[in-house]
Amino acid sequence: MASQQFDPPSGTRDFLAPALRTREHVFATIRAVFERYGFEPLQTPAFERLETLTGKYGDEGDKLIFKILRRGEHEATGEADLALRYDMTVPLARVVAAYGSQLPAPYKRYAMGPVWRADRPGKGRFREFTQCDIDVVGSASPLADAEVVCALADCLDAVGVRDFRMLVNSRKALTGLLEAYGVPDSLGGGVLTTLDKLDKLPPDVVARELVDGRGLPVPIAAALTGDLTAGDAAERMRIALKDSEQGGAGLAEIDRLLELAGPGVGPERIAFTPSLVRGLDYYTGVIFEVVAEGMPGSIASGGRYDGLIAALGGPDAPACGGSLGVERIIGLLDAAALEQPRLDVALTVLGDETLPELTRLARDLRAAGLRTEVYLATSRKLAKQLKWAADRHARHTVIYGPQDRAAGTATVRNMDTGDQAQVPVASLTAHLAATR
Amino acid sequence: MASQQFDPPSGTRDFLAPALRTREHVFATIRAVFERYGFEPLQTPAFERLETLTGKYGDEGDKLIFKILRRGEHEATGEADLALRYDMTVPLARVVAAYGSQLPAPYKRYAMGPVWRADRPGKGRFREFTQCDIDVVGSASPLADAEVVCALADCLDAVGVRDFRMLVNSRKALTGLLEAYGVPDSLGGGVLTTLDKLDKLPPDVVARELVDGRGLPVPIAAALTGDLTAGDAAERMRIALKDSEQGGAGLAEIDRLLELAGPGVGPERIAFTPSLVRGLDYYTGVIFEVVAEGMPGSIASGGRYDGLIAALGGPDAPACGGSLGVERIIGLLDAAALEQPRLDVALTVLGDETLPELTRLARDLRAAGLRTEVYLATSRKLAKQLKWAADRHARHTVIYGPQDRAAGTATVRNMDTGDQAQVPVASLTAHLAATR
């Protein structure tokens, strides 16, 4: 094992080639989907001014911000003036404020890159991790919500996560629900926070917390938890919400989303889920979350948050968006081990006098698009170099010894079969390009 | 203009879609070349432990490190425990130390990503900028140097920078040069630092600095500056170095590099340049630098640095490598404005009742690989939506009004020519995919 002194800092990771290639493959696949939808990429700096970030993530969030010490003569003050990006949304609000009319209207952007949070590192929880967001700023249309939902579902399909369910609800429906069940306004927020646990805890445990922790009367708690976990919960809620103005508006926007996005996501994979709450309180319209078999938590989520861009320092614009849990998705795929690109040709070096010819050959092979390496260590023994070629997963090894040289040929060894063939040096590149 | 409050922090940049795509295109082009050479990607965290970085970049470098404040109860100490990556070489040394036998031997890796330096921002000088390095750790072979040099030259060709010159020298040749011209050992380092200015200052100015600033006798200063700037400088040096052991070894390694890499780089673009010094004192073998017409400074550089990995905390391994000045290269290309991907299809929305059909159509078009957007703003006026489609640089706009709907057709407008055609809805995707 590596000495701890050489480990990356706690909560961060070094990505060697195989892991990095798997990640890049997932990112490229997702990017291609976003591009097909006309989302545009945005990249902001790794750090922002400290004041841009503080106060935007609540007290708990603020504690997790990595702050950068002032420099030069100011370093001794121990003060910070910059901070590492904590999410992609605050930088988006800043960019919309800064570039306004230079941006397409509405502004559909995707952002995929690292964010940093000083969380306690744990299984699957990192201090440096990739976030992947799409947002539409400047459109109040239900079509914008549908586009976000369809794009995220397409991404999951594209990376091979097909066995998922998308839960849909609406902030307005939740408000109507509180109204319909007679939950006092003052208890509303707390009640929703507790109801959010229905996906993890049994209904009676949640009901007890609603009573003991939130002060809800027992009959209301029982009715709420009973109806929300019933097999026909959606139908019960449709009836309960009918007479509430907010509830009716919520149902209408849910139905519009199901109508517009359902055929794209797949009707069997998307459903109105009245118990879906989502922890964050900035949502104003539809909300959604994607869960997959065998995965704890969600692998995608989002919704409409019309006041958020303004609250984060941007202009007052309607907006909606969503995130893909790329780290979780990559975690799912790691087991299946993406195929790595192989070395096409390994060139052995049996005598230093052949180096000029071998470098010319390497140049020709690379120009033909073949991934080629020349043996760079000092040994001139063939067995050792064949082991190197095998370790590098080469498809073919070219052996060019004194006899080959005299005959104007080289020996091409197929590393999968062990077959060897004599090939004239002049046609070696064409030969290897053809066997690719 | 944007209010300064919304600008990115001093010395950093926001990359909107056009600039970001140009950058990503350059990075992808470079990556493809490195992959053809069998270099493997490596990505390390944005920050390292502070002690991993301090003391590695000299006093001036240490001052430019962005330090991260300790968190939680330790924040009040004003101390830092982490620091943003300052280059790619110290993390490489840590990775080689940490993963040793898990890495291919020799370890050929490339790294491309941001580094952070608290430099005073200026024209073309940023606090967050991309570095692009290749290194071969664990090979003392001259072929390794040649592979690095050829890979970098191939990258320049691939990104369209073809009018460059690669200057080659050797640390040993420089040592031999001091010996051959009788420069006292004690003055050697300072004399080389001053000779490094011969590419920017006239020979007599450099000679004066050698005498006044470095204490070199006048005849030696005159001979050195005269010979190094003569038209036949390389020939004069070959003669001068012949009798020096170090000088002879240096000439041999230069000649070996020219023999192995010259045909790949192009013999007319690479030359022994005895006045090339390079500022950094960790080089032990060949050194090189690439200059291009109309560019101040170099756009690529590198050499052999056999002791560096150990000095940076890694194992004692021979190594060589080089960097591409990607920010400068991208600066060169910006003027030529890379072609941006266009929107293939803009779908107008003339009535809300058509939204389900339009979302289905969008889905089909995207499934056929066409970059497609649906109009997301509220106006239902065609003129406004055509302007949107033009602003989005769409190739085609689909108009699907009430008459179209009744006829089972849609109108396809070619946005470059203004031509319009009626196309049956059922064959719209095939039609648009064919006109791509």
Automatic annotation (TrEMBL), chains A, B:
One of its GO terms (biological process) is histidyl-tRNA aminoacylation. Keywords: Aminoacyl-tRNA synthetase, ATP-binding, Cytoplasm, Ligase, Nucleotide-binding, Protein biosynthesis. Residues 1-341 form the Aminoacyl-transfer RNA synthetases class-II family profile domain. L-histidine binds at residues 87-89, 117, 131, 135, 278, 282-283. Its main location: cytoplasm. SUPFAM superfamilies: Class II aaRS ABD-related, Class II aaRS and biotin synthetases. It catalyses: tRNA(His) + L-histidine + ATP = L-histidyl-tRNA(His) + AMP + diphosphate + H(+). The keyword Transit peptide does not apply. The keyword Repeat does not apply. GO terms for molecular function: ATP binding; histidine-tRNA ligase activity. Its EC number is 6.1.1.21. GO terms for cellular component: cytoplasm. It is found in: Cytoplasm. InterPro entries: aa-tRNA-synth_II (IPR006195), aa-tRNA-synth_II/BPL/LPL (IPR045864), Anticodon-bd (IPR004154), Anticodon-bd_dom_sf (IPR036621), His-tRNA-ligase (IPR015807), HisRS-like_core (IPR041715), HisRS/HisZ (IPR004516), HisRS_anticodon (IPR033656). Belongs to the class-II aminoacyl-tRNA synthetase family. Homodimer. This is Histidine--tRNA ligase. The lineage of its organism: Bacteria, Bacillati, Actinomycetota, Actinomycetes, Streptosporangiales.
